[in-house]
Design goal:
Elements (H helix, E strand, L loop, with lengths): L2 E6 H4 L3 H14 L4 E6 L2 H6 L10 E6 L1 H11 L5 E2 L2 E2 L5 H9 L3 E10 L2 E3 L2 E5 H7 L1 H4 L9 H12 L3 E7 L2 E13 L3 E2 L3 E2 L11 E7 L3 H10 L11 E6 L1 E14 L2 E21 L1 H8 L1
Parallel strand pairs: 1-2, 1-3, 3-4, 3-5
Antiparallel strand pairs: 6-7, 6-16, 8-10, 8-15, 9-10, 9-15, 10-13, 11-12, 13-14, 15-16
Helix pairs in contact: 6-8
């Protein structure tokens, strides 16, 4: 089966040509039949996968979680298989796969959110504001590993809780919240383990809601996500379901797998075995070495 690598020059910039040379070398050493698709502009990237919709290829976006999400939304409903090659600021789905997946092709769950899909995490409240803020997430003057943390510090100092309504398992929670996260996998924010028991093949999502928190309590909860102990805090509530609705009385921003989304109502439902994933840890290791 052919591998189609989707590479955006506007992301890799001056690293593009060197990356292509290495990609060719490693692909040939793995005896892959491949094609490299290079997009020079955002407009090209939006339409680049259309000609593969009626084929059966392994589509491999090169980038972070946002690149995976954009490819996912192009591939749902086709015969194509989704792979990935991490080269971004978050790479949380890659982190999950290395922990939980064996090499090979897997049928995994995805989550429909309104008219789009995500595979990793959707977040609302302070987490969405951090993830959507390009002043931090794509700031070339801040080291990649520190960008999300820089956003955390900024919004920790300035954030005001937002009134949201969460509907899950017949229960309605309507109050001012610090954050709400809907997780299909484990990680978000560059290594925060928001859903330590999350799986992507069980037909379920975990919905984590944090009450309105003062600054000291907020800092404690945020830091505790690094070792997944936040769920022990009485201000953090967890629900497991196959669907959920999060809404507000006015449009507000969410973030799905690193991509922004805005609405006043977000309806979410698990699509069991909604996409096939090809995971090849040896290939990824060879490319990143």
């Amino acid at each position: 089966m052919k591998y189609v690598y989707v590479l955006n020059r506007f992301n890799l910039k001056e690293k593009t040509d060197d990356f292509i040379r290495k990609l060719k070398k490693v692909s040939e050493s793995f005896l892959r039949d491949y094609e490299i698709l290079v997009n020079d502009t955002v407009e090209e990237a939006k339409d680049s996968l259309k000609r593969f919709r009626d084929q059966e290829c392994i589509i491999t976006p090169i980038g972070g979680d946002g690149s995976i999400n954009l490819a996912l939304n192009d591939l749902v409903g086709t015969k194509n298989i989704l792979a990935f090659l991490p080269h971004g600021t978050g790479n949380d789905f890659n982190r999950f796969c290395h922990e939980e997946m064996t090499d090979g092709i897997h049928e995994v769950d995805i989550v429909r959110i309104n008219d789009r899909y995500f595979i990793n995490v959707a977040c609302f409240g302070i987490d969405a504001d951090i993830a959507n803020d390009d002043n931090f997430i794509h700031n070339r003057f801040i080291p990649e590993a520190m960008r999300y943390n820089a956003g955390v510090v900024h919004y920790f100092l300035t954030y005001r809780p937002r009134k949201m309504k969460v509907e899950v398992n017949g229960e309605v929670i309507e109050e001012e919240m610090t954050t709400a996260v809907v997780a299909n996998a484990h990680y978000y924010g560059g290594g925060y383990k928001v859903s330590p028991m999350g799986k992507i093949d069980d037909g379920k999502i975990e919905i984590i809601v944090a009450d309105r928190l003062n600054k000291i309590r907020m800092a404690k909860v945020i830091l505790s996500m690094k070792d997944a102990s936040h769920l022990k805090d009485k201000a953090v509530h967890s629900y497991v379901s196959d669907k959920a609705v999060i809404s507000s009385d006015r449009p507000f921003k969410a973030n799905i797998d690193g991509e922004p989304l805005e609405a006043s109502v977000f309806e979410m439902e698990v699509i069991p075995k909604g996409i096939r994933i090809d995971f090849d840890s040896a290939f990824i290791k060879a490319m990143l070495s």
